Every structure is written in C-alpha cells, then in structure tokens.
Amino acid sequence: MPAALNDIFKIIESLAPPAMAESWDNIGLMLGDPNAVTDKAILTLDVNMDVAQESKARGAGLIFSHHPLFIKPVKNIRLDSPGGKLIAFLIKNDIAIYTAHTNLDIVAGGVNDALAKKMGLTGLNVLNVTGGERFVKLVVFVPASHAGIVRDAVCAAGAGWIGNYSHCTFQTGGMGTFLPLDGTKPFAGSRGEMSFVEEMRLETIVPSVRADAVVQSMLEAHPYEEVAYDLYPLENTGPPYGLGRVGDLPGAVSLGEFAGMVKEALGLKDVRLGGALHETVRRIAVCGGSGAELYTGALAAGADVLVTGDVKYHVAQEMLSAGLKFIDAGHGGTERIVLPVLRDYLQEMCANRALKVEFLLAETATDPFKYF
Questions:
Q1: pLDDT value for 112
Q2: Whether residue 139 is found in the same domain as residue 229
Q3: Which of the ends of the chain has fewer CB neighbours closer than 10 A, N or C?
Q4: Closest CA to 200 of 232, 229, 234
Q5: 232-283: per-residue pLDDT in tens?
Q6: Quick one: pLDDT at residue 286?
Q7: How far is the CA of 287 from the CAs of 54, 171, 272, 337, in angstroms?
Q8: Which of 239, 265, 292 is where one domain is finished?
Q9: Are 13 and 157 in the same domain?
Q10: Are residues 301 and 222 in the same domain?
C-alpha cells in the first residue's frame, strides 16, 4: 500500500527537525499535496527538469531534494520560463517536492557527519555552533498491554536517547480511572460507568526539536481516543549542534596524500587545493557545501586543513595567509554523500512502520560543473 506523503515527511523530520534550520532557509514541502500517496521517492541534491522527468519515468510521486526549489520569493510563474515549465511539469504529473537543507547540514547524522565519516575522522566536534540541545520530559499513561508498543513508537521518533544509550525510559504501574461519557468509544470500560484500568506511567527524555514528532508518534501508537500525557521543560543541556565538523585522521599524512584520500572517498576526479603538498596534516575541518567562511573557526580548533566547496579566490588567499590549508572538493561533491545515508534511514524507518515506499537515488547528475 502506498504511503501518505505526510507520513514520509514525519520520518524525515524525525532525523532533521525543521527547528534546526537557519532562519534564512526555506525547507519542508515546496510543492504538492501532503495528503497524496506514493510508493516511490527520488533523492537528489537539486531539482531540475531532468530530475523531474526521471522521477516521472521511474514512477516517483515525491522528490526529496537537499537544495530548496524556492529559496527566494516567487513573484510570478511564467510558463515560457525554465522555472515555470518545471513547476508546471511537476504539478501536471503529481510530483511533490520536499526539502531538508540546513537542518540536514546541522543535525547529528546529517551532511557534515557523513562527510567527516567519509574522511575517516575521529573525535568529532561541531565546527560552528548554532545552538544547543534542550530537552523536555514526556510522561504518558498507557494500559499495561500497550506500554511496549508506545515505548517503541516514541523512541523510534527520537525520544529516550542519553549519550550512546537509546530507549531510555522509566515505567511505574498504577490504577487509572475515567468515566466515558456520551459519544465516546472507550478502549476499556463502558460508557456511563466508572472504569478502573491497570496502567503504566511511561516517562522519557525528548529533545525539544523532536517533541512534536515524538508526541505525534505516541498518539498514533496509543490505544485511547483521548490520551493523558504531559510535557515538562527541563534544565538539562545537551550537546551543541551546528555547521561543520572537526576531527583527526588516524595518523599524519601529507596534504598531497590527503587530497588523494578525499578524491577516492568522494568519488571525484579532481579537487582544488591550497597549501604545500609535502606538508603534513592530521587535524581536519569539514563543511559540506559552501563552508569557506568558517575558516577562522577551523583555525581556532587547531585544524591543519579545511575540506569544503565553493572557495572564493580572496578567501583562499586569506586562509593561506592565516596558515590554513584547504581542499575545495566542490559544493555537490561534499554534499551528495548524504543521499545514500538518507535513503537507508528512510527505507528502514518506513519498513518499521509497514509503509511500502521505495527510495531511489537520482541517476541524473545535477552538478553544473564539468572537468576536463
């Protein structure tokens, strides 16, 4: 059975919460009906006519893009323009567009963690902190027979993580009471009669940015038509989050050797770089996309080299003058590595929810640059 797009969006947002996105960004549903259904989705960095036509040919009703279809306000939609033709094609063929951009860059497990992992870095820290994790405590009362179902649902949506431990909850038993009134359809008991039910008090910690997704999953898994639950703000502070990562290679290598490692890891034929090829590097800063402006943070973190894309001429001069080497592996080259990670995550999460959706990597290359 095809899945509703809204259900897919909830899964994406459980990984990359919209609240993490930069204020200037445009994310979420760009185009389409959130109540539509599909059994195939295409994952791509960019949306253009070639990707749209590929999606139609492969029967996909959803395109997930990392870069927004609309980043600036749309003043008109002219069907004699490339952008207007693309929008018309997508609408006529019932293809929706959903975007996770800077929220996917920032979140743990997103673009920058994927890039750092490809580089083989260890001991990772956030390069440019944009915020810190805040928490709430979720308390919900559930019949003992369904405690495990509700627990698994909220933890799958992002609750219950403490460090490297998942599914951290606490349960206590007790007696719940309620009186079903006219018009109700009680899970237990009868209308007009006081009910006494053995219930569990289930409580767990939830990152604030995931609270909406966790509550929604809890409501969907809970057997009651009216669910008794509480959310309490906590003073606990979690790890920082933000753009870029900095970490260490297993051992020191020359800049030339490291450039070869970057090309192999990212499947690139060429990279641009700055610095003496023979000089050694070990501490590495990375930022997917356009991250050259983070170079002062890379220096402060003790990095020997910054791996990113879109390095401008004068910024390159500044980096070298400040003593920081760099490797420009391209905007797309440093970001597309997240697409297989996202595909595997979405495929697993949909399977866990019995949602029959196939996630496909776009075969269309959207990088506008060619090298020869």
A1: 97
A2: yes
A3: C
A4: 229
A5: 999 988 888 999 999 999 999 999 999 999 999 999 999 999 999 999 999 9
A6: 98
A7: 29, 41, 15, 12
A8: 239
A9: no
A10: no
- Has residue 372 been placed in a domain? no
> In Å, what is the CA distance from 183 to each residue of 18, 173, 190, 219, 228?
37, 29, 11, 20, 18
Return the CA Rg of the chain: 24
Strand partners, 174: 199
Q: What is the mean pLDDT of each run of 10 residues along the chain (372 residues)?
A: 88 90 95 96 97 97 97 90 95 97 95 96 95 92 94 92 91 92 87 91 93 91 94 89 96 97 95 96 97 97 98 97 97 96 93 91 91 76
Q: In terms of domains, do 196 and 53 share one?
A: no
Question: How would you class 89 by CB atoms within 10 Å of its CB: exposed for 0-12, middle for 13-18, buried for 19 or more?
Answer: middle
Residue 87's alpha-carbon distances to 81, 192, 347, in angstroms, are 10, 55, 27
247 domain residue, yes or no: yes
Do 215 and 145 lie in one domain? The reply is: yes
Please work out, in degrees rounded to the nearest 5, the angle formed at the alpha carbon of residue 16 by the alpha carbons of 7 and 133.
130
Read off the CATH number of the domain in which 189 is found: 3.30.70.120
Among 207, 239, 271, which residue terminates a domain? 239
Cα first-last separation, the chain: 46
Q: Are 232 and 136 in contact (CB under 8 A)?
A: yes
DSSP 131: E
